[in-house]
Amino acid sequence: MSVRTLLIAGIIGTATVMGGCTSTRTHQSADEYVSDAAITTKVKAALVSAKDVSAADVNVETFRRTVQLSGFVDSSAQINRAVEIARGVEGVQSVKNDLRVKGGR
What we know:
The protein is an alpha+beta fold. Helices cover 47% and strands 21% of the residues.
């Protein structure tokens, strides 16, 4: 291989690696992903600790510090409590509530 070929390959490789670390509107950087995973874990742990919410019924996902709660719970009081708990977790910027009452319409 020539020096020129190696140089071009190095530039392309560096651009590819660096491109994998940046975020776009629909994709997270590695740092954002790790941060969101930590937030999800903290929210889920807080829900498990709460005696007035069935954590097993609440799904938690985080994207760019916005927590989405989904699933079916027993009452609107549990929905309100789950949202309150999620909002209280450090790092949470906003909460999207997609929880529903079981059997509710």
